[in-house]
Amino acid sequence: MASGGSIVVCGETLVDLVPATGGLWRPVPGGGPYNTAIAAAKLGAPAALLTHVSRDAFGRQCVQKLAEAGVDQSLVMRHELPATLAVADIDENGTAQYQFYWRGTANDVVIKSLPDPVDAPVAIWAGSIASVLWSERDEVRAWILRHYADIPLTFDVNVRPTLIADRETYAERLVPWLSIAQVARASTDDLEYLYPGVSVRDTVGGWFDEHPRIEIAVITCGSEGSLAFRRGEPSPLHVPAHPVTVVDTVGAGDTYSGAFLDGFYRSRLDLPEALHRAAVAAAITCTRHGAQPPDAVELANELRRTRS
C-alpha cells in the first residue's frame, strides 16, 4: 500500500444541541462519522463522507463546515427532511450523554441508490448510529464490499443505547460489520453495555475467534488511555492518555479515529506511534468546547512539546 491516498467515511451527520449561557442551546454540526471525516481532513488527509444531510438551515451549516475542513462532498446525499438532532447533557466531568431526535429526519430515509464511489482510498471507516439504524445499512455494507473489497475497513462500534434499548438487538446488528472489518474500535463503555460482565480481553478474544478478518482491536479507556490488541500477540499495547485539562469530551473519540486513520493508513506510521498521535489529537479536542479537532500544525506542535 502506497503512502498518501484518501479516506472514505460512512455514516450519519446530525446537529448537536449543546448547552450555552443563559439556559440557551447552541447548534453544532456533528455525529461520529461527520466528526471523524473532519478530523482526518484537518490533519491533511483527503477525506470523503458518505452521509445523509438535510437541505434545511442546520443541514446547510453542516455542509459549510465540511467544505471549510476540505472534506469531499461527492458522496453526500441531500434530503428535504429536517436535520437529525442530538441534545447533549454534559456532566461536571465534561462527559456528554445524548437524547436523539431521529424519526422523520434526514437520517430516517429510504433511498433508491447510493452515490458512485470515489477513487480507491487507502482506508474505509464505518460505524456509529448509521451502522445499526440506517434503513440502507445492508446496502452500504454491500457498496463497500463491491467497490472497496481490498481496502481495509475500520469499524467503530460507538454505542448509543437511547436509540436501540434492546442490548441483544444492538449487538446482533453489529455482527455483520465486525465480520468485514480489519480494525474494530470501541470504548470500554461500549463493551460494558454490549457484553455485561465480560472482560475486555475476553470480548476481544471472542471477536478474533468469530471474525477472522479482524487484525487489530482498539479499545479506548477514557483517562486510562487505550489498548490495542493484535491478532496472534499475547498482550495488548497500552497507550497512555495524554494529560490535559478537560473542558468536555465531545468529539474526542471521533478525533481519535480520524487521527488514527490518517496516521496509520495515510502516513503509514507504525501502530504505537499512530495510536499515540491519535491520543494526543483527542486530548487537544478535550481542551475545547464541542468537537473541534486540531489541524496538522496544532497536533505537530503538541507532539513536539511532549517530546521536549
Through-space gap between termini? 32 Å
SS class: alpha/beta
Q: CATH superfamily membership, which one?
A: Ribokinase
Low-confidence stretches: none
Condensed summary:
By secondary structure, the protein is an alpha/beta fold. The chain is 36% helix and 22% strand. It is built from ten helices and 13 strands.
Summarize the structure in words.
The structure is a single chain. By secondary structure, this protein is of the alpha/beta class. It has one domain: UDP-N-acetylmuramoyl-L-alanine:D-glutamate ligase, CATH 3.40.1190. The chain is 36% helix and 22% strand. The chain is built from ten helices and 13 strands. Strands 5-4-1-8-9-10-11-12-13 form a nine-stranded mixed sheet. A four-stranded mixed sheet has the order 3-2-6-7. The longest helix has 16 residues, at 271-286. The chain is globular and about 50 Å long. It comes from Mycobacteroides immunogenum. InterPro entries: Carboh/pur_kinase_PfkB_CS, PfkB_Carbo_kinase, PfkB_dom, Ribokinase-like. GO terms for molecular function: ATP binding; kinase activity. It holds the Pfam family PfkB.
